[in-house]
Amino acid sequence: MPATSPALDERQTKHLERLGARIKDCRKQLGVTAMICAEAAGVSRATLHRIEAGNPSVTVGAYLNVANALGTTLTAPFPTEDTGDVPMVRVVDYPGLRQLAWQFDARTEISETEALNLYEREWRHLDYERLTDREKLFIHHLADTYSHGELLV
Q1: Could you tell me which of 148, 125, 151, 9 has the C-alpha nearest to residue 67?
Q2: Per-residue pLDDT of the chain (153 residues; tens, 9 = 90+)
């Protein structure tokens, strides 16, 4: 029987649901069945389905095992001790970012952390090979600076 889910606010619930959806998208893109993924991660199929639904009662260890079975990792970007201003970027300066931030005016400036969040949240909509070298370097800069070198994709 699954554990009781902890109380989460709406923002946390949505974040966990997005994480579960990313895990499910990754599994499907790799062509891995739920049964194979669950076996490789050492969890039941029911637990895998709860992870893919973003259920908060599943242990962090199970989430990590599933990510590992899919050849990826989960990282949480924690704020650094440096509380200085985060640099701003213009959406129009990076074609892939512009595509992901379609709701913003092209001249809009967003913080580098907002850009990182957009890249991570919408990665599946990007064709990495078609990004400019400048944008690829920018994405690596964001990952190195704010996510210990790893993207949550």
Answers
A1: 151
A2: 666 777 888 888 888 998 999 899 989 988 999 999 999 999 999 999 999 999 999 999 999 999 989 888 787 655 544 445 779 999 999 999 999 888 888 788 999 999 998 898 888 889 988 999 999 999 999 988 888 888 777
Q: Which two structure tokens, joined as six digits, stand for 114?
A: 């907002």
Class of domain 10-69: mainly alpha
Domain ranges for the chain: 10-69, 88-146
Tell how many helices (H) and how many strands (E) occur in the chain.
7, 2
Residue whose C-alpha is closest to residue 63's, from 20, 8, 117: 20
| Model pTM above 0.90 | no
Asked if 21 and 55 count as a contact pair (C-beta separation under 8 A), the reply is: no
Alpha carbon separation from 56 to 15, 40, 60, 68, 124 (Å, rounded):
10, 21, 9, 19, 24
